[in-house]
Amino acid sequence: MSKKVMMQYFEWYLDSIPHLWQLLKKDAKHLSDIGIDALWLPPAYKGIGGKNEVGYGVYDLYDLGEFDQQGTICTKYGTKDEYLEAIRTLHEYDIEAYGDVVLNHKMGGDANEIIKAYEVNQSRRDEVVSAEELIKVPTIFTFPGRYDKYSHFHWDHKCFNGFDYDILSKRHATFLFKDKNWQSDVDDENGNFDYLMGANIDFSSIYVVSELKRWGQWYLDFTNLDGLRLDALKHISASFFDEWIPYLREYKQKTFFCVGEFWHGDDNKLLNYLDEVHDQFSLFDVPLHYHFYDACQNENYDMSQIFNNTLVKCKPDHAVTFVDNHDTQPSQGLQSWIDDWFKPLAYALILLRNVGYPCIFYGDYYGIPQNHIHAKSDVLDKLLYLRKHYLNDKQIDYFDDSHIIGWTNDKMVCIMSHNESGNKKMIVNKKYSGRVFFDYLENVNEEVMIDKDGFGEFKVKEKSLSVYVLKGEQDVE
Question: In 3D, which of 408, 416, 438, 424 has the Cα closest to residue 343?
């Protein structure tokens, strides 16, 4: 059992000043002190939005804030040197750094091309709805500000298979380039979900795959990252990652950590994808996030079923569990923000259980001023402390009620209520007979005496969480 905890160290509306990389360097010791073992860092390369680009409108993968491109030298998060220094500082405090990798598209082309294409049905991307036509698209990427440093590879329409705007007709539509096909081993939403945005990268091109292999080697060497977070897996050929990840691992001579975002609420979709890539990396447990969202929205939600049909239940060793992220926060396309009252419950469900690799969201820990969301560092610090000092591989579940559930090991008792207050008789250990447990979160003031058989009657307030530990023996490993 691992006690490791990851933090997603950004949210969508971060200010560009001061630079995040500078803030991270100053924050590294604090992160280590509270029990963070790894950080998922935002995309570090130059995007179409220049210094305001969150990172997903990718322009140049080799520009980490080093070249004057897209109107800026630095990225939103800082310069290349600041990025590398932040990673070095994390390593000084034994914190791993995971880089966000966005490979499905490019945006902000340096020149246009006129090419032949077909319009496809927006809701059925596998259906062509027009005759062959000429369109003008920005598919030439020569990166003139970089002067071919690090790579001489230039991109043109042969490296892509689709675009979503024709400059000639000033028309927004999804276009499939002539003599091209959408990849077949992608998600089947909209008939085929290869295309997402921008100039859609064609992974059937041997030249593209070869260049992305070279870039992957360069990126890992140049940054000394410890792992990768893979964006938008639904839209990228599964066979590419099935080849790319082992290629990089063989090159680095190590099995670095890797987690992918396959955004789907159906656990079967995630399990099928893991089969396609031969379980070579983990996935974010999106179904569990949606269970949290349903629970906080529905007063009749059955809490005893909250882990059913989730990745962490079906394949715990490949599940990265999370509560919210930059896509689910308010005003974003996948908005499904977990209510404040339920946040401690949700975080207890990922931090205080002995399966899965939990990920804390920057916006929860530090707050999101843009959305008037306050920091929840106080409760998260306590849960992180409990995970570090009280979590072990023993676990007895009491998921026998629709509103009040709990679990124990021989050091800690967790109980939560989705609705009304109540109590639950649960076992700790006979060795604590006659000893007193108290609520470390201080939501319940009453102490609990453990009986001769090792049981106690543990209370919880309505819509609340309590975590009981032995009185007078904190910090016991």
Answer: 416
**Residues designated as active site:** 231, 261
Q: pLDDT per residue over 50-93, tens digit each?
A: 999 999 999 999 999 999 999 999 999 999 999 999 999 999 99
Q: Which two tokens stand for residue 417?
A: 């209520």
Residue 349 to residue 198: CA distance in whole angstroms: 38
Encoded tokens for 163: 């675009």
Peptide bond into 18 cis (omega under 30): yes
- Per-residue pLDDT of 284-340, as tens digits, reads 999 999 999 999 999 999 999 999 999 999 999 999 999 999 999 999 999 999 999
Crossing angle of helices 377-390 and 20-34, in 10° steps, is 50
Structure tokens belonging to residue 329: 């926060």
User: 94: which DSSP letter?
Assistant: T
Arithmetic mean of pLDDT, 397-412 = 96
Instruction: Identify the residue whose tokens are 């992305």.
Output: 212
Strand, coil or helix: what is 126?
coil
- Mean pLDDT for 225-236 is 98
Q: Which residues contact 362 (CB under 8 A, 6 or more apart)?
A: 7, 8, 9, 10, 11
What is the sign, positive or negative, of the torsion defined by CA atoms of 207, 210, 216, 222? negative
Kindly state the tokens that stand for 471: 């009185």
pLDDT of residue 476: 45
Buried (b) or exposed (e) across 245-261, using 16+ Cβ within 10 A?
A: beebeeeeeeebbbbbb
